[in-house]
Amino acid sequence: MRSILVISLLSCFFAAYEAKIFPRCELAKKLKAQGLDGYQGYSLANWVCLADHESSYNTKAFNGKNSDGSSDYGIFQLNNRWWCTDSKYPSAHGCNMACSKFLDDNIDDDIACAKRVVKDPNGISAWVGWVKHCKGKDLSKYLAGCNL
Known about the structure:
It contains five helices and five strands. The longest helix has 15 residues, at 2-16. By secondary structure, it is mainly α. Strand 2 (72-73) and strand 3 form a beta hairpin.
């Protein structure tokens, strides 16, 4: 009986930390509702393409292997060198948030930070995934069938 209780508690704990992988159209609707369509001149399709190539729409995406020793967090892969703080790397604190906030299923704070990032001179080009896979490309497939 005791082992069943322990297993049940552990499964609840792990379930709470599962990643949300957004369906493409659900993410597009969320980003649009948060004002990203046309934000700083970037279409909604650009934002969806960016999230696809940075995290595959995964809220728990983490990359700890940047060449400078920094790490990237969440659906937009926000970097701890510039945008968020953790105990692993000194940060410029651009978004004044803990990096761990970008690893939960609530992406409102991720969106707020992404809006901050694109206000810098590099704009959306701050994301290598966007430059390599989205810039100058036909992005219509990212909103196809979404009924926005």
